[in-house]
Design brief:
Elements lengths: L2 H56 L7 H14 L6 H17 L5 H77 L14 H20 L2 H18 L3 E6 L4 E4 L1 H7 L3 H4 L4 H5 L3 H6 L16 E6 L2 E14 L8 E11 L1 H36 L8 H31 L8 E3 L1 H11 L1 H6 L3 E5 L7 E3 L1 H18 L5 E9 L2 E8 L6 H4 L22 H11 L3 E4 L7 E8 L2
Parallel strand pairs: 7-9
Antiparallel strand pairs: 1-2, 1-5, 3-4, 4-5, 6-8, 9-10, 10-12, 11-12
Helix pairs in contact: 1-2, 1-4, 2-3, 3-4, 4-5, 11-12, 12-17, 13-15, 15-17
InterPro entries: BphY/WalK/GraS-like, HAMP_dom, HATPase_C_sf, HATPase_dom, His_kinase_dom, HisK_dim/P_dom, HisK_dim/P_sf, PAS
Protein name: histidine kinase
Main location: membrane
């Protein structure tokens, strides 16, 4: 029997009890109403008729209508004959009344018989009223007795129902709650022991089956997998780097204590929330979510340091965003399953790098003074007024001059790199003519190019608009590109210098016809201290020129790069916005 049927039967039973009590009450009330109606209709009315007839006899001499009233009352009484003896008395009164009307109206004997009969008629109805009143009282007593008995029995049944039925519902639920709590505490040996054939019984059997399956599951290899997952979660919590995990819908799945501290939000308030909603009130998370949709593991050269105030000081963090991809069963192509954002604290490395930069800047600055003094001394040695030099001495002075120039160039590049690394690039942006830049750069390298018999082929400078640039920095970049082209070009060759307008930018291109760059070196040419080996296996320069050029161009809002598909040689370009 189902719980629904049991509850329905219980409600039907309650309805039957109410119907029984109401029906009994209505039955006895009808009985009392019938007894009362019988007294009023049968006997009280007859007493009224008797009284009217007695009054008519008393006023027969004074009231001319007295006999007529007597006749009307007698007729009505003859109709209302309800008690035994009333009919005989009414017939006797009718006979005597006929004699009285046809004879002497004051016949005392006839009047006496009529009066005697009226008294008997009244006495019969009075006795009937007392008798029927006793019947009504007995009916009321019987009704009270039956109602008390029926009500008591129904009360006892309902009281037992009230005491037992809630327990029938609540006890299995309480037992089920206790079982669920035990299973939640990983006590998979817990079982429900109540027996019934209703839904509670089915629920108990389903719960026991579930607990049995969980008990089996606890001892399978999957439990080991979950244990390993917990191990990984623990390792993430213990890592020194800040780690934030997002699913494919950008909901935050896990945050370790370091990331929680950096974000300034408790872990419990982050996990499970939609990351863009949190980012509305959190500047750091908003920065971390930028360009997240297309994010991949960021290359080292593209990472931007984040300054975050942490543990009482300004700290530097390196952001790495990894796309999590999974391959579903039956599918070949992996799909994106979320992102992992790693914040690596590199404050110590940054501080060391800053110390290195300051050291390089200081040493480079200090070296420029003695190098300048050496060059001044070399110039004095060339002066014929202090004495002529023989050929061997001139050769030695030339070597010293070349080494001094080389040292001066190196210290200049180191100073520029120190300026770049310290983030203190000072720019004076103004409108600059592209033709002036090219003219100044080619003039600066005119001597070096002529020594190798290299010619500059300039094109496309006609009617170009002015560009927004720092003239010193832009010229330095162009000189550096031309210097590299001259150094890697064969003797008696040409270096092409071209300029053209691309939309709202002007593009400068420097191309040489040397051996070019190997494919494995092309992606690294703008890295600091990287020097591509030459044809003889040797490499020249410090490896800083292109890195400094990239920083200068980007600081002016431009682009710099290496063109693809250029053979022979290589072609470098940079673009700056039109003023």
């Amino acid at each position: 029997m189902t719980i629904k049927l049991k509850i329905s039967l219980a409600l039907v039973f309650l309805f039957a009890v109410l119907l029984l009590l109401g029906g009994s009450g209505m039955y006895y009330l009808n009985q009392l109403a019938d007894d009362s109606q019988a007294i009023l209709k049968d006997n009280y009315t007859s007493l009224q008729f008797v009284g009217r007839m007695q009054k008519a006899l008393l006023t027969r001499n004074t009231d001319p209508n007295a006999l007529k009233s007597f006749d009307q009352a007698l007729r009505q009484q003859e109709i209302n004959l309800t008690e035994e003896g009333e009919e005989e008395l009414a017939e006797a009164i009718r006979v005597d009344f006929g004699r009285l009307r046809s004879g002497n109206p004051n016949d005392s004997l006839t009047l006496a018989r009529i009066g005697q009969n009226l008294l008997q008629l009244g006495e019969i109805n009075q006795q009937a009223m007392f008798r029927k009143n006793n019947v009504a009282e007995q009916t009321a007593n019987d009704a009270l007795l039956w109602l008390v008995v029926t009500g008591t029995v129904c009360f006892l049944i309902l009281f037992s129902f009230i005491i037992n039925f809630p327990g029938y519902i609540a006890n299995p639920l309480r037992e089920l709650t206790r079982g669920i709590q035990e299973v939640a505490s990983r006590n998979f040996e817990e079982r429900l022991h109540f027996r019934s054939n209703d839904e509670f019984g089915e629920l108990a059997r389903a719960f026991n089956s579930m607990a049995h399956k969980l008990d089996e599951y606890e001892h399978t290899q999957l439990a080991d997998v979950l244990f390993e997952k917990k191990r990984i979660d623990t390792l993430i919590q213990l890592m020194d780097n800040g780690i934030i995990g997002l699913d494919e819908k950008k909901n935050i799945r896990f945050v370790n204590p370091v990331a929680s501290r950096l974000l300034g939000v408790d872990e419990a308030e982050l996990v499970g929330r939609y990351a863009p909603d949190v980012a509305l009130t959190n500047d750091l998370l908003r920065t971390l979510l930028q360009n997240l949709t297309d994010a991949k593991t960021e290359p080292e050269t593209d990472r931007k340091l984040l300054k975050i105030y942490d543990e009482g000081k300004e700290s530097y963090f390196n952001r790495q965003t990894h796309v999590v991809t999974l391959t579903r069963t039956g599918e070949e192509q992996p799909v994106a399953a979320g992102w992992v954002i790693v914040l690596e604290n590199i404050t110590a490395y940054q501080e060391r790098d800053l110390a290195k930069t300051n050291f390089i800047a200081t040493v480079s600055h200090e070296l420029k003074t003695p190098i300048s003094a050496i060059k001044m001394s070399l110039k004095l040695l060339d002066d014929q007024r202090i004495g002529a030099l023989n050929e061997e001495q001139k050769e030695l002075v030339g070597h010293v001059r070349n080494d001094a120039d080389r040292l001066l160039n190196i210290t200049g590049e180191l100073l520029n790199m120190a300026q770049v690394e310290s983030g203190q690039i000072q720019l004076t942006i103004k409108a600059v003519s592209p033709a002036d830049l090219v003219q100044y750069a080619t003039k600066a390298l005119e001597v070096a190019a002529s020594q190798r018999h290299i010619r500059f082929a300039v094109s496309g400078l006609e009617e170009l608009p002015a560009i927004k640039a720092d003239p010193d920095k832009a010229t330095w970049v162009l000189v550096n590109l031309l210097s590299n082209a001259v150094r890697h070009s064969p003797e008696e060759n040409t270096v092409d210098i071209a300029a053209r307008q691309l939309g709202n930018q002007v593009e400068f291109t420097v191309r040489d016809y040397g051996p070019g760059l190997r494919p494995e070196h092309r992606a690294r040419v703008f890295e600091r201290y990287f020097r591509a080996p030459g044809p003889n296996g040797q490499s020249g320069g410090t490896g800083l020129g292109l890195a400094i050029s990239k920083e200068f161009i980007q600081s002016m809002g431009g682009e710099i790069g290496l063109k693809d598909g250029i053979e022979p040689g290589a072609a470098f370009y940079f673009r700056l916005a039109i003023a």
